[in-house]
Task: structure prediction
Amino acid sequence: MMMNGMRALPHCTKDIRNLLRAYNLLVATRDDERAIVGQVSRGWLQSEREDWIQLSDISHGVFATVRGREILCDAMMPDLDANPASIDLEPLLSQVPSSDKLVNTNSLAKLEPAIAAEVLLGVMLLGVQRYGNKRCGSSRLDNDVIIAAMVRDTVGLIDRYSAVLPGKCKTIEMDTITAMFGENISKHVLEIKHYHDDFLDAFENSTTHKLNLPRPYANVIAAIHGSQLRLVARAAGDNILANLDPLKKAEVRDKGIDCDSEFPERIWLDVHHSLTKAALALDGVDYGALAEPLEQSLMMAVGDVLEQPDKRHRLVGRRGKAVYATHNSLPLIESFNASENFNSIATLHVAALEMMQYLEKGRRKSACTMLGHSLRIAAVAENLFGESLEPSFAVTAVLHDVVEDGSRPIAGYDQSLNNIKRRFGGPLAAMVAELTDAESSVAAQQKAEATLLCDTLILPEQQYNFDRFTEMELEPTATHEPYTLGGIITKIIDTAISEEEGIRDPDVMSSWWRHSGIRIYWSYHVKGKVVRPLLVKLTQEIERYYANRESATSVLSEELVVGLRSLINFSLISSDNYAVQNLAIISDEYGLSAAEREQMIDAFFDESVDQARFETEIVDALLVEHRLQSKIRDGVVPAECYVALYTKSASAHPKPDSDTFIKYRAAALQRAKIARRLGLEPTVKADSRAGLEEVVSLYDLRKAA
Result:
């Protein structure tokens, strides 16, 4: 498809689509698994959510670790670049109880999600494919084998995105793998499981040296164990098990893991080191592209620690051999030039690894990890756009949060746009920059308004010079420039996925985010003022395309328009579902009956109910002061300012103010008009409320739990 004399957009290849689907499947099934301990409870997930806590709330045992010392230095000596390993802890620790310093919980060391091992596995295997066989490449280790290796352990697990209510979610079967990826990948999954079982049996009997596995599967088994060892090594270096809170320790003990020994991770480190050593020694494992890089970094570092446990602090940190040296010694990271391959599957693998490296501790305000959130956004883009998705858009979606959330104040790292520019090139860095939040809270809104006023949609190639590298100037959000099409797609999906997390995890969220005030303010004033202009712009462009289809002047094509319609529909449904849950929360805040709650939800979405009638019949008649005060006395609501119908000022006496709530309803009615303009199925129909009823049922289920 040619656009105004420009090159045709590259299509998303089958291999890239399969990789994005694999990422989505991993997030759907394994994002609640953690290194060493496996699947964890919702209570565990709730305790990990992102928050700002007092420095004094951190256990003193944490401050004895590498990461803890870094946090202490950053908080207590912000103007001094001190060596965390050489500081005298006692004077600083004595100041902690009286300190008012706040620390983001995403800077605290945590057990990594299991999906991090599969991301690393993919990078390891693609390195063998491209640079194995003495850098001639290994054609037998094709992309289907790599995908099969990544998803092999999803079989038998629950796909939490397959339904709204947990009880209706589907279990992943081999038929699911076949339907999602095709028969060839399904065959490889079975083969990998078979050969891996053979390896484990041989390991138990000390006969792995007798195995004769096909070369591709030998490399898969070596990469499986190498990637798992890397996760265990980080946990050991960060002393995580010993510093778990009492509830997590009790959960871990129930799994048969002792957290109270001097080095509780050692047994796991020893087992995984032995497994990896045996796997790397298998006949057929590529030496230069897999065995040597791991032996010279990860295996050497872990071996040293097993001999001298007092060296385990060397496993972690910004230059720790178990992490930093391991990743950077892999041939795909060492040799592949992502800056010259914007739309390559290898660039997508490298982007996922970048997210995993910098946001391994990152958790959302929901039950989702930051890595899982980003991978899901890219996967949803593939689901909506199919072949018309430009691969670089998927890369940008994966990386969109890595700069702001991988920074020192949040995650304790020094991620930056310039770092992204060096690794991925100026154009991709610029695409990430337009999605990186600026210091101004209204920058994204201004950028969205500029997009709406722009004559047409802008492709990244038009906005950024894809032949330029050193001259590229990077600025977060850049309000004077409209969003490119890739930025629009990512912004809209990002908001919808954030809404989805809120819908699925209202019980995990804390404090303000359990109540209607901040949720509706965020939805209308923060995200809404960005997404609404973008939806209107896309609607206008789609209508223009259909009106002038014969003129061939549009930057759009038929297949891209189909994807954009799907994107808009996805956004409308998500926003309506989120609004329904927020109305359910308001119902609890005012103590409405089930019938009154249903009446409010019906009226909220009913276009035949004008504003005056809605205010009279709902706001004035149902959301009355004495009902709220009763719930405040009962402890259901902390104070009036937590509720959507009150001001959010820090004043001790917030005032009634229904303006945002009324505007929030107007935005819902605007969504219905957009659906009509584009001929989309209404998301809220009087004769079909099954989807919305499930959202309310899920909220009631989470609340009861």
